[in-house]
Amino acid sequence: MSAGPEEQSPYGSGAGASRPTNATPPPRKVRIPHLQALKAEGRRWAMLTAYDMYAAEIFDEAGIPVLLVGDSAGNNVYGYETTVPVTLDEMVPLVRAVASAARRALVVADLPFGCYGASVEQGFTSAVRLMKEGRAHAVKLEGGASMAPLVRALTGAGIPVMAHVGFTPQSEHQLGGYRVQGRGDAADALVADARALQDAGAFAVVLEMVPAPVAARVTQSLDIPTVGIGAGAVTDAQVLVWSDFAGLRSGRSPRFVKKYADLRGTLLDAARAYAADVESGAFPDAGHSFES
């Protein structure tokens, strides 16, 4: 006997999925109030990056409630060493592809380096482009309390904002590379930054490469959801870069990455098999050709 509506997962209809009695019902379209309700209920949710229509369709079908079109496209699409070179013009088509393919997920778009730090006006103009041209549902920006005026201006104009503190990749040159943030005396400042962003109107805060106890402290002190990446288990949500979690990239992975597939190996084997078939004449065969 199939599960009734009150027994289904809030994010999908996978086998064995269930939800607590009196929990928030699954929405047809994931929106910010639903994420806030999940925090209130103590229920965790997943976020993945996506940069193209196929990844967006698959993750949306899998029930991932939030898709992030991250400036991590610099490392995972454009072949840059960091996220710093990514431009707004490069982000817009990626956001539009994901937003057009996702039917249910909330699509969040990163504001790339150099398009929002100069002034509130610059940030507002850039965010509007991601919302209008990219069709994003929300934007994400990096930085602490100094970003509060921009967050306040964007949310006041109807643009939802996801904030990002801890290790901020756009500032890696200033931070001295990929380093854990918020240790020791810096923990209080990180908590204060998160609170300032919440007070300015952010609907969620990403905590990247933060000690687990500090991330737990931030999560407990905020009314809005926290999204961890390298921040331990006591956050309201988790995010991973999809090419990391699917095993598409080669080389060493960050400590916080868990690989759920070996997509690189699968594609490598498929490409080798295809090349071998072409070289031997096995492809195309009669079944893959047209008759006169």
Q: Could you estimate the helical fraction of the residues in percent?
A: 25-40%
Bulk shape = globular
Mean pLDDT: 91
Spatial order of strands in the largest sheet: 1-2-3-4-5-6-7-8
The total count of strands amounts to: 8
Q: Work out the strand percent.
A: 5-15%
> Are there runs of 5+ residues with pLDDT below 50, and where?
1-17
Largest sheet: 8 strands, parallel, barrel
What structural class is derived from the secondary structure elements?
Answer: alpha/beta
* Alpha-carbon distance between the two ends: 51 Å
Report the order of strands and helices.
HEHEHHEHEHEHHEHEEHH
User: Helix count, per DSSP?
Assistant: 11
Rg: 21 Å
Family: Belongs to the PanB family.
EC number: 2.1.2.11
Active site: 208
Enzyme class: transferase
Describe the structure.
This protein is an alpha/beta fold and 292 residues long. It is built from 11 helices and 8 strands. It has an 8-stranded parallel barrel, surrounded by 7 helices. Helix 5 packs across helix 6 and helix 6 runs parallel beside helix 8. The longest helix is centred in the last third of the chain and has 18 residues. The protein is globular and about 70 Å long. The N terminus is likely disordered. Keywords: Cytoplasm, Magnesium, Metal-binding, Pantothenate biosynthesis, Transferase. It catalyses: (6R)-5,10-methylene-5,6,7,8-tetrahydrofolate + 3-methyl-2-oxobutanoate + H2O = 2-dehydropantoate + (6S)-5,6,7,8-tetrahydrofolate. Pathway: Cofactor biosynthesis; (R)-pantothenate biosynthesis; (R)-pantoate from 3-methyl-2-oxobutanoate: step 1/2.
